[in-house]
């Protein structure tokens, strides 16, 4: 993926990332979505970041962080 330079592209990429994460969570559940992301092959900073965070956290910690974020988003959208 190329470097995103304008704010419209950044916004579209953010929207895509959120929609993708939501689709994974809806289809796989929190725990399996985290596992899927953790085993992804690929290049780029986000994959490296995910792998690094995964190495520092166990699956329960990651799942709890996702649940807290979801709760925060739901509260903000009300």
Instruction: Output the helix-strand order.
Output: HHH
Sheet of most strands: none
Mean pLDDT: 75
Spatial extent as radius of gyration:
14 Å
Bin the strand percentage: under 5%
Shape: globular
* Low-confidence regions: none
Number of strand elements: 0
Going by helix content, strand content and strand pairing, the class is mainly alpha
- Terminal-residue CA separation: 34 Å
Total helices: the number is 3
What percent of residues adopt helix (DSSP H or I)? Answer: over 70%
Protein model, in words:
With 78 residues, this protein is mainly alpha-helical. It is 82% helix and 0% strand. Helix 1 runs antiparallel to helix 3. It is globular.
Offer a concise description of the structure:
By secondary structure, the chain is mostly helical.
What does the secondary structure layout of this molecule look like, with pairings?
Elements: H1 7-39, H2 45-56, H3 59-77
Helix pairs in contact: 1-3
Describe the structure using short key phrases.
78 residues, 3 helices, mainly alpha
């Amino acid at each position: 993926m190329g470097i995103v330079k304008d704010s419209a592209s950044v916004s579209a990429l953010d929207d895509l990332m959120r929609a993708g994460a939501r689709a994974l969570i809806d289809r796989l559940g929190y725990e399996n979505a985290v596992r899927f992301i953790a085993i992804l092959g690929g290049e780029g900073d986000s994959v490296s970041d995910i792998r690094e965070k995964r190495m520092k956290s166990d699956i329960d910690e990651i799942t709890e962080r996702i649940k807290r974020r979801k709760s925060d988003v739901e509260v903000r959208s009300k």
